[in-house]
Amino acid sequence: MIENVLKKSVYFNVKPFLYWISGVMFTFIIALLSFQITKIPGFNYIGPLASAIIISIFYRQIFGYPEKIKSGVIFSAKILLRLTIILYGLKLNIDIIFNQGLGLVGFGIISIVFSIVLTILIAKWLKADLNLSLLVGVGTGVCGAAAIAAVSPILKSKEEDTAISIGIIALVGTIFSIIYALFIPVLQLTPDQFGIWAGISLHELANVATATAPAGEDVLAIALLAKLGRVFLLVPLCFILIFWKRKKQSGESEGTKIHFPWFLVGFIAMSLVGSYMMGSVILIPDEVLSKISFFTTFLLTMAMAGLGLNVNLKALRSKAIHPFIAMLITSILLSLLTFFIV
Fold it and tell me: Whole-model pTM?
């Protein structure tokens, strides 16, 4: 009898773990497949994040949600997502912003305020889902998927809303980056002007790199600097959203209060480490830093796979179209506005 009890206890302890690890490995496989797909000519413009979302969404629609391994999928969608935001802080060199790009932060503020306000206004006019519209507005104004991932816990967004908004950002950002690259010979802009324009108007860091790399390394450098000015503003934006959300819910019950997103502290800490300790106090070879960057992107791709599995296209078909239109209009007008002010 004791042996039977022990067997049952071990069984019940091991089984949940196996389901959990299976769920994590499932998102790992999708992420691995996403990176392989981007090696196919043409698919490199889409990127692994969007590819992971597309694969997982299609899997959900064909085979349904993998309920048995749900715990592992949720772990990837939530815990890994927050971990990647912390590691993403290494990409932000605050010292460079303060010494070289502080003037570009002003352009970044214009870009963020314009994107969020206009997206929400258009969304209200179209009677679109405001939470989904706010997510794509933040992604448009700041830094795409990373910004959406950072603010979605603050806004208490549904996982399917987070995934869909990231998918929208990836699609529009990819199209715009290709258009920008094609327009390099046509536009009457200096290299610095083109770099700044791309950096303050395109959505993702990858979009900025895609658009400006054909123009040369100098243009790419100024573009990434302008883009980092917008990434720098992600933290104050998050605190503004926390204050706004708490004020909005001040009259509601304690259970609906917004808790402080402690992963932002990690993001700031890693930014400080990357800005002031790398190369001086902490000596890390460039190869290791490159691997850390790849590891961060891979974990974020696993998180996107987890988010994509929560998307029910039938339920979101009518919900997503209006935020997409609002974001597309905003992106076009943002490009025009920033073109004339650089």
Answer: 0.78
